[in-house]
Amino acid sequence: MNNPQYMSGTGNNFLVSEYEKSKTDLEIISIVADSLIDIDGVIFVEKISSKTVKMYYYNNDGSTAELCVNGIRCVAKYAIDNSIVDSNELTVIAPIGNIKTISNGENISIEVTIPTYDQNKIIIDNNECIHSKIGNPHLLVQVKNVEKFNLEKFVNKVYQSKKFDNGVNIEIYNMIDKNIINARVHERGVGETDACGSGAICMFYYLYDTNQVNNNSIILYPGGELEMSIEKDIVTLSGKVTYL
Question: Is 158 helix (H, G, I), strand (E, B) or coil?
């Protein structure tokens, strides 16, 4: 690996390196096994131009994903800090398309178009669930107490339902008030993680669109907080990116 660095985007930990060639799932699993710390995924960064990079993302089980928002934010900081690009505003090419990022020191913001969600709720284990997509799929579940909820048991119920052939990211949340949301997440191909940027976007937009939260809200994950806002059809997510 060329210039590998351990990075964290609000608790999502990655090993980030410059791109050399595509990796097989077995190669990724080997990299994860040899990692000095627990990581959620492996990311490679390829320079396209002075303001554009391409992201190659792998979950820690070797699988790929359509979108990893906190990974994109790590890519942006890595590209800037290693002089791969020459601007604090750059485009990251991800599987779902081009993502605009803005860097302000440790705080990295991204802008994405609004996700979609199904109007009809899905009932799983007596829980009302909302299916939402932003390139990758999410299941949003409001619970009484995020910390006490048995997420692992519920994940098993979701997969036993056989409603998601390609898997799904599962977000549980409870409202603290109309500006603060408490959340945990189980990501497909990874397991429970400390945060999920794409899940935060899906959660925020659904709650905002149904008048349950205000604009300029915060989602609290075990790994830290993500600031969320919306203007017209663009959702902005901001949070810290650090080196480990």
Answer: helix
Superfamily of domain 2-113 in CATH is Diaminopimelate Epimerase; Chain A, domain 1 (3.10.310.10)
What is the per-residue pLDDT across 217-238, written as a single tens digit (0 to 9) for each?
Answer: 999 999 999 999 999 999 999 9
Residue with tokens 């669930």: 129
Cα distance between residue 90 and residue 77, in whole Å: 10
Cα 102 from Cα 241, distance rounded (Å): 12
What's the helix, strand, coil split of the chain in %, to 5? 20, 50, 35
By the 10 Å C-beta count (0-12 exposed, 13-18 middle, 19+ buried), 52 is classed as middle
* Topology given in CATH for the domain delimited by 116-228: Diaminopimelate Epimerase; Chain A, domain 1 (3.10.310)
Query: Which region among 65-74, 153-162, 207-216 has the lowest average model confidence (pLDDT)?
Result: 65-74
Whole-number pLDDT of residue 146: 97
**Distance of alpha carbon 192 from the chain centroid:** 12
Of the chain, the end-to-end C-alpha distance in Å amounts to 17
- Domain ranges, ordered by start, for the chain: 2-113, 116-228
How far is the C-alpha of 167 from the C-alpha of 114, rounded, in Å? 21
